[in-house]
UniProtKB/TrEMBL annotation:
This is MOSC domain-containing protein. It comes from Pseudonocardia ailaonensis. Pfam families: MOSC, MOSC_N. Gene3D superfamilies: PK beta-barrel domain-like. It comes from the Bacteria. Residues 123-264 form the MOSC domain.
Length: 265
């Protein structure tokens, strides 16, 4: 396989930036999901997993500029992320604070994507809470483990843009590779240059891939296809529609676009 795309998302649930290389260590990718918004009412981490409240976050873009995280609003302003709380609160219609410190036991609200698809993004549906970052020793706001990967075989089967799944790495697979091949990688190691990753969990899909991402329109099939074709028993979480996989970092180093990716037997 080969690494064809590398992404980092400096602010949780905002659009990210494509890079040509990145340093990774046990905590994940440098500057990836190191900043988040905290809901002033609930104290929970803001995420577009709860579309009724936070889908507008997918219209903001976050980037690293001279080692600072900056946010660009669809309204046209650009601010240092840590100075943007008041403007974000005003535009989102909900008081938020911007932080680099993940609260102990940090939680998000995650409605079932089937409920969101059935009732609509504006509907009030049950929103169970989920503790994030359970599979990392780092202090970032990742959903589970330090890195998220998805293959071209899976993307080709679903037929939607890879950015909807917010992966860190997209891997080009050989012709004939079956869709959702990531399911068979659990516990195996993946070597990319000097970096060694261990695949730890299939990636459960929420409603985020179905939402508008910047100029991209909504795409219900982004989750309906995994619902139909790839429901997986995810340890600790239940049987869920999945696409892609999570990985922990065994040996850190640099990952570059074009690197070969070799899976252990």
């Amino acid at each position: 396989m080969q690494v064809t795309t590398v992404w980092r998302y400096p602010v949780k649930s905002m659009l990210g930036e494509r890079v040509t290389e990145t340093e990774v260590d046990a905590g994940g990718m440098r500057r990836d999901r190191g900043v988040a918004l905290i809901d002033g009412e609930t104290g929970r981490v803001a995420t577009a997993k709860h579309p009724r409240l936070w889908r507008a976050l997918l219209q903001y873009r976050a980037a690293v500029d001279d080692d600072h995280v900056v946010i660009t609003s669809p309204a046209g302003w650009t601010l240092d992320a840590l100075d943007a709380g008041a403007r974000l609160s005003e535009e989102l219609g909900r008081v938020v604070r911007v932080t680099t410190e993940r609260p102990p036991g940090a939680e998000v609200e995650r409605p079932d994507p089937e409920d969101v698809l059935a009732e609509g993004v504006e509907a009030t549906v049950a929103a169970p809470t989920l503790q994030i970052a359970q599979g990392t020793t780092g202090d970032t706001f990742v959903d589970y483990a330090p890195l998220h990967l998805i293959t071209s075989a899976t993307l080709d089967e679903i037929g939607v843009e890879h950015v909807r799944y917010r992966p860190n790495l997209v891997l080009q697979t050989r012709p004939g590779t079956p869709a959702f091949v990531e399911n068979s990688w659990m516990g195996r190691e993946l070597r990319i240059g000097s970096v060694v990753l261990r695949i730890v969990l299939p990636t459960p899909r929420c409603s985020v891939p179905t939402l508008e991402h910047g100029d991209l329109p909504r795409s219900p099939d982004a989750v309906r296809t995994p619902m139909r074709a790839n429901r997986v028993d995810v340890p600790g979480f239940g049987v869920l529609p999945c696409a892609g996989c999570y990985a922990e970092v065994v040996e850190g180093g640099t990952i570059r676009v074009g690197d070969a990716a070799e899976l252990s037997p």
